[in-house]
């Protein structure tokens, strides 16, 4: 980041996004976030630990790394320990787009709204592979049914073209669960798509 590179990071555990955003925000100030995931990753702690793959965005909020009015979380779903699992996110000003709002439709109109929300200020893309349905991406540690399709994933990433993207990651691919290799294939292609929408890249 200090050298002017735009980091595209491969995970691994979603915890990696936390230190990346520390470095990105140190240079750019609080950033907008396009976050694709089955989970909000805004928990406070698990098994007594405050840093794990379900807490990175709460830690980022606490440190002022995110411009909360420019955070959108897409594909959120699954069971919860809380009767209102998105309350924290809404209280911060995040836009939460549950998976059921994405079923059976193109996400191009949503991304038009997201581009207006993000404006020309710095934006980071964090893509958890479990945002996709496990039919397409089984190789992950916390799969949730009824997720996004690969076509919708492309609509989200391609819909970020023109934004001031200052970093991206693709996380939570778990090779030991990826018997067919399809999850790795999908993850690699999504990272390539992110590369193609970076500012100044000609495609």
From TrEMBL:
PROSITE patterns named in the record: ARGINASE_1, ARGINASE_2
UniProt-listed CDD domains: Agmatinase_PAH
Pfam family of the protein (one): Arginase
Coiled coil regions in record: none
GO biological process assignments: putrescine biosynthetic process from arginine, via agmatine
InterPro entries: Ureohydrolase, Ureohydrolase_dom_sf, Ureohydrolase_Mn_BS
Protein keywords: Hydrolase, Metal-binding
Gene Ontology MF: a single term: metal ion binding
Family: Belongs to the arginase family. Agmatinase subfamily.
Designated name of the protein: Agmatinase, mitochondrial
